[in-house]
Amino acid sequence: MSQATLNGTLTNDGGDPAGCYCTFRYGTDPTVDGNGNLINYTEVSAGTGLTSALTPQLLHALTGLDPDTEYYFQTTAHNSAGDSYGEVLNFITHGIIAVIDIPTVLGIGRYNATLDCNLVNDGGETCTLGFMWGTDPDNLADSITVASGRSPRDFSVDLNSFQPDATYYFAAFAVNSIGTIVSSIVSFHTDTALDKLPVLPPYNPPGGPNPPPPPILPVPPNPIQPIINFTNIGLAIGGTASAMVLMFPSDTDDKKKKKDIKQIGNKKDVK
User: Fold this and answer.
1) What are the structural domain ranges in the chain?
2) Is residue 146 packed enough to be buried (19+ CB in 10 Å), middle (13-18) or exposed (0-12)?
3) Nearest to residue 83, comparing CAs of 74, 92, 91?
């Protein structure tokens, strides 16, 4: 915000032994009434008990004024006989330099980063906003303008021209008619490129490398019923002898599905 000091001179106190009570009226509206006095104004004291012989100078310091703004003011003096008004005068406040926050980095990649900052005070006028950066903090050689506007507001930019695995320095700036304000310098480090990332060796458990997988054995054909042929099985145990043959079908005999049991007798006495 801007400030100004109003001043005037009490040229005649009207002979009132109590002196005069003096004020300043000021505002941004130049409209006056039929007597030439301000209609819309703020009134502040310029002193009481003032006399033209002893304290003719009237002063009042104003603060919190809008920058780059035209104001109108006049002096007043009051005694027991009545009121008196000075001529309406004007002044224009100067702008002030802008105020910005410390910038931040919202995201960092191998080749890119997002820079961000906030315009806290525009100094009373529209500001041009941007960033500057480089690999040397004493020489931020690259710059870009990203926005223009009034405070408060945020401004940011996505940059993708960085080198991987490198340290960069950057600052934000704001420009108004008073001058350029540059923020504090902030650094960041880009990510490592993929071809520079470390390669880990294959994991080997304690006792040696990973064993090879078991071999894949061939799948056998569907099993078939076993074939058993009994021939000439004889029994001769001091009596009548007999023989029995058990016949089982082979896998090629599709017609016989049951087991045949035949008994052949050729009985004779065994002596």
Assistant:
1) 2-92, 99-193, 225-271
2) middle
3) 74
Tokens read off for 261: 């049991």
* String of DSSP letters for 195-237: GGS--PPPP--TTSSPPPPPP-PPPPPPP--------S-EE-S
Cα–Cα distance between 3 and 65 in angstroms, integer? 6
Q: 236 CB contacts (<8 Å, ≥6 apart)?
A: 270
What is the assigned CATH class of domain 99-193?
mainly beta
- For residue 237, pLDDT over 60 is answered with no
Q: Where are the alpha helices (DSSP H) in the chain?
A: none
Q: For 72-87, what is each residue's pLDDT tens digit? A: 999 999 999 999 999 9
Is the model more confident about 162 or about 206?
Answer: 162
**What is the third-level CATH fold of 2-92?**
Immunoglobulin-like (2.60.40)
Q: What is the pTM of this model?
A: 0.50
What is the C-alpha separation between 146 and 6, in angstroms, rounded? Answer: 40
Quote the percentage of the chain above a pLDDT of 90.
54
pLDDT in the model for residue 192: 85
